[in-house]
Structures are given as structure tokens and as C-alpha cells.
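User: Structure with flavin-adenine dinucleotide, C-alpha cells only please.
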Amino acid sequence: MDERWDLVVAGAGPAGCSLAAMTALEGATVLLLEKGEQPGLGRDWIVDVESTAFEEAGVPPPGPEASWHRPGGQVMLSPTGGTTIDLLPPPVLPVRNGAYVRQLAGWAAESGAEVRTGCRVLGIVLEGEAVTGVRVAQHGGGEVIIRSNLVADCTGITGALRRGAPTDWDLGGEIDSRDIIQARREVRRIDPDAAAHWVKRGDIPNNVRVDKTGVMAAYSVESCHLDIEAGYIDILVGGNLGGRFPTADEWFARVVRRWPFVGKKIFGDGGIIPVRRTWNSLVGNGMLLLGDSACQVIPMHGSGTASALLAAKLATSAVMHALDEKRYDRQALWEYCRAFQSGRGSILAFFFVVKRHINRLTGDDIDALINRGMITAEDFYNGLVPLPFSYDPLTLAKKVTRGVAILPLLAGFGLSGLKAERMMKHYQEFPPSYDRRDLDRWISGLPRVT
Ligand SMILES: Cc1cc2nc3c(=O)[nH]c(=O)nc-3n(C[C@H](O)[C@H](O)[C@H](O)COP(=O)(O)OP(=O)(O)OC[C@H]3O[C@@H](n4cnc5c(N)ncnc54)[C@H](O)[C@@H]3O)c2cc1C
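Assistant:
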């Protein structure tokens, strides 16, 4: 097959579809390749997405098919259930991921990108020191090469392209098992009368989402939102599981067994999410990484959709600039890398340090931190925006006074906060243009996170 494109995008998730649509709209010739038979197939979980992200990224907001209900309220329970925090109305929209991805893939096609499904991308084609295309599996065996000036790895945690890149492009390696979340989220039918009985007993509220934190590992959440009037329950479990903990699927099955009123699945799926700071670089010669493939996820709770959309906007500008200049090397694409790393990437890096700290705590520790007001509704809200924690002197003094009884925990939390801030500042000072020595200096200056 003799074909050549300006840009080949591997993976039709939120990142890949948005990048394909935006670059095609700007006049690039774009091919979007998806291994599934349909974009979004088998990935129909609800994603809570920052409500400002769509406008900021310049992508269409979710249409009626892709929109889901907001709960009437939301509370957070500490691991032992001893403390309940009424959460502030979360600044997020619940979106059906599968339907939204199909909407975005449709937008890419309308914008002029060619979308091919059932096409598994095997890796990059490297010639000299640059990527010049991708290898794609052929139905019935064998592979074909598709040539392009640029390729984008939007294959999520698979990282199908980045894994074959030269190591000195710094596009990451294996993800540490501490930085992988397993999650499952399903919406299920309910028997309304039986559910009303459980509500009456006080076991579960109606139309309030209850997030139980630290149930399995310290870094885990079990969340249920029962809506008797609408006739469903939305259940999410997720965390850094495995080992002595059940898998997300086993945990999910336990939650379903706990509530006899829960019936068949309406929609929902499970998957894994990378929760580490972004890789040291997001571009190579002729190549860009976006979305989960670049680890552009908020490490505190595994939300990656907004970052994927925002990255697509930044990457579009770098891709179009490279095409105009007919220069496809790392230097030419660097502005995407710089803009992401020094902006949103720095906030993600902040939360990565906090998350690694939380990983080491026990359920009792989390309980004590919530109990003593060290972690508050405002902190949860900031994690969703996402905004780094920053306290005025009065709030800080109050926290310290209340935390005296748990001094070691308080000190650990404080130190991790300081390190998180150092990490954020380091990302903000990401090298403004590509220079090997500057990048090496930046990498060697990264705060050590254990
Ligand atoms: C259960 C669950 C709940 C979640 N909840 C939230 C939430 O509340 N809020 C939020 O913001 N995020 C949430 N996330 C994370 C969010 O779904 C991801 O961060 C987001 O989908 C990342 O988008 P992406 O485009 O980078 O990658 P993906 O959505 O992973 O898309 C990658 C695409 O690439 C395709 N692909 C993979 N390999 C190849 C290959 N070799 N060739 C061709 N195609 C390939 C895949 O089939 C897929 O379509 C959740 C994830 C899970 C699993």
C-alpha cells in the first residue's frame, strides 16, 4: 500500500480523536488508526471530567448520548466509616466515555481525518534517527507500513509506539506497579422497592454519591450512587490493588453481592490507568505522546480525560507549526512538550508526590488525617480542579493545632507537601527549547520520590 500522511494517530481515545479532528480542521492530512472494531468499544465507563475542560481544549462538549446524571450530593467516608465529609459540589461533568469517544471520532471524520478501525498499530518505523511511519498488523497475518511525517502515540497505557522509541528520547519505560490503578465502573439496574428498604435501614442513601476512601489499599476508593427514581446504581471501585488485595473485578463483584437489590449491567467496563508524573519528554524526532500514553493523568484519582483533551490542543499547534516549517525533529515539536510540562504537567507532578506519600499510609492513617481535619472538603475539591493545595496562615495554623496528636503523620504529610511543591516548581522550569544538556540537567535535578 503506497500512502503517505502528514500525521498518523495511533489510538482513537479522547486524545487521539481530538488531535485527529483539530489537525485535520487545520488542513493536515490525518489518518486515525484504532485497534477496536469501533472507537470506545469495551470502554464504556463514566468519566467525571472537569467541566471547564471542553471549552478550554476547544472540543465539542458531550452531546445527550454521552451525558450522564449528576448525583444530588456527594459525601466522603473515612476508611473505618467513622468520619463523613460533605463534599463541595464537584466541578466535574459525568460523561459516558464510550459514547463521547464515538462523538469525537465522528468529529474527526467530519473534519477530514480518515478513521480506520480494526487496525492494530505494532510500532514505529525508524529511519536514521527519525520516525517515518508506523507498522500496522494486517488481517490474516503479516504487517504493512504506513508512511507519515509525524506520528502520535495515543494508545493509552499500552504505549504501542513509545515503547519502540530510542531510549535517549526519554519517552518513558515500564510503569512502576505502585503507579498503576485498576478500576471498574458500571451502572446497573435496581429493584426500586428492595433498594428503598435498604435506604430506610440507613445502609445507603438515595441520590447521594458515597465515596469510601482507603477501603482496600490506602490509595483506593469505593463509590456508590443509588438513584431510585432513575432506577439505577452507579458503582466504581479502583485503586492500587493486586498482591494481598483483590483485583478491581473481584472487589466490584463483592460490592454487587452486598446489595441484593442490584441487577443487570446497563453499561460499564473496567481498565487500568497510569498514575505517575508525565514522562521526562513527550516528543521525539517525528513523534508525540498524548494522554495516558504520556501519563497525563491526575495521579490523585486517575482522571485523564481533561488532560488528554488539553494536550490535543497544545499538540495541534506544534504539529501544524512543524508541517508549515517542514521540520519534524524534536526541536520543532518541543513547544508542545514545554507547554504541557510547565503548565498542567507541573500540577500533575505535584499530585504524583502526594499520591506516592498516600500509597505508603494505612487505612487507619487516612482515617486519622480525615478525622483531625488534615484532609478537608476543600482539599478534595482542589484535587478535582486540579489545583495544588495551598493554605493561608490561619488555615495552616488550625491544621497544625488539630494535628498535634498525630505529629508523625502530620510531619510526613507536611514534608511530602514541601517535596510536591519542589517537584511542581521543577516542572515549571522545564527547558524552554530542546538542548540535550539542558534536558539532562533538568532530569538530574528532579526531586527524588520514593
Ligand atoms: C474504570 C475507569 C474509570 C475512569 N474514570 C475516570 C474519570 O472519572 N475521569 C477521568 O478523567 N478519567 C477517568 N478514567 C481514565 C480515562 O478513561 C483515561 O485517562 C482516558 O481515557 C485517556 O484517554 P487516551 O485517549 O489517552 O487513551 P485511551 O482512552 O486509553 O484510548 C486509547 C485508545 O487506543 C487504542 N489502542 C491501544 N493500543 C492500540 C494499538 N496498538 N493500535 C491501535 N489502537 C490502539 C485503544 O483501543 C483505545 O481506543 C477512568 C478509567 C477507567 C478504566
